Amino acid sequence: MTESPENPNPQNPNPNSPRTDASSLSAFGASRRNVLFGAAAGAAFLSGCTSNESNDGKDAEAGQANVADDKPGKRVTIGFAGPQADHGWLNAINEQAKERAKKYKDVTLEATEGSNDNAQQVGQIETLINKKVDVLVILPADGKALTQVGLKAMRAGIPVVNLDRVFASQQAYRCWIGGDNYGMGLNAGRYIGEKLKDKKNAKVVELAGIDNLELTRERTEGFDDALKNYPNIKKVARQAAEFTVESGQSKMAQLLRAEPKFDALWNHDDDQGVGAERAIKQAGRDDFLMVGGAGSKRVMEAIKADNSVIKATVLYPPTMAASAIDLARALGQSKGVGGLAEFEIPASITLYSAVVTRLNVDEYLPTGFK
């Protein structure tokens, strides 16, 4: 496939293939369709998760690991602890985990209510540890602040699947799975760069997330690095919002007042993008293209309709929670994953930040969150 403005990855001529750099397993070399593993995507990158049967030694004869599959096997109790679902993406994380667990007859899910208070979340996780769950899946409100409770679980012999916001120590988890914040910014910048590469003195603006979060800084760094490949493009303004509708509206209004003319906007988060779009409509502006972030259903539907400034969104798939359940199930049954020569589950799995445009939106629409 030849490069086109719809391909945000100039270094990867096939936009249907996941990134394969050393820092990312990208669903172990699967196709882009399988990168979005999980309940909403309709497929797990793991082959499933649980038979205790040895398949009469056929796997060993073939030189394969004892991998998980869909057959019911040893029962596993998975403790799930995440932050409060006060955001569309976080709510989708919770739903993905719960729905995935329901698919397995051998899984019991013990889920906490979720909290953004570090002390309260620590208490919830300690309760799960005291219940002696087999495996823990934890999306910490603050990875650094909750590292000690991750260490406590691991020392108690409970393997931890660290979801997205990483603990400060690798000793606090057995496996980490999450999104690629730097890659998210990189691909947003590449998409915009390809769209504006022939425009002289092009200008872009950025509506970022919460600035004291490492993920926000990584998204901005990736975006800036991508734009370095397009000398005709200059980022003329940046505002940090708070991943809320209200902050998106107020900060976008400030950007519009400060910059009466620009060609593209990258917004880090589709939820705060609701507010950004309100400000754009109130200002009567439609002279630029907008790229969103995370992959909400609302934004994907707008991309498909092609009747607004929104032309693309860069995924940060909440399906990672469904895959975390797959991993936890496999860990609880001492299984590996299909498609790998290694016997053990990897220590780190980074998802690919695909760009959704009108050309591929139908493929990704089922994964969009509300």
Structural class, by secondary structure, is alpha/beta
- How would you name the oligomeric state of the polypeptide chains in this document? single chain
The helix/strand order is HHHEHEHEHEEHEHEHEHEHEHEEH
The CATH homologous superfamily of the largest domain corresponds to Response regulator
Number of helices: 13
The largest β sheet comes out as: 6 strands, parallel
Alpha-carbon distance between the termini? Answer: 33 Å
- The CATH topology of the largest domain is Rossmann fold
At CATH's second level, what is the architecture of the largest domain? Answer: 3-Layer(aba) Sandwich
Mean pLDDT: 85
Organism: Streptomyces bathyalis
Pfam family, one: Peripla_BP_4
GO cellular component, one term: cell envelope
Region (Disordered): 1-27, 48-75
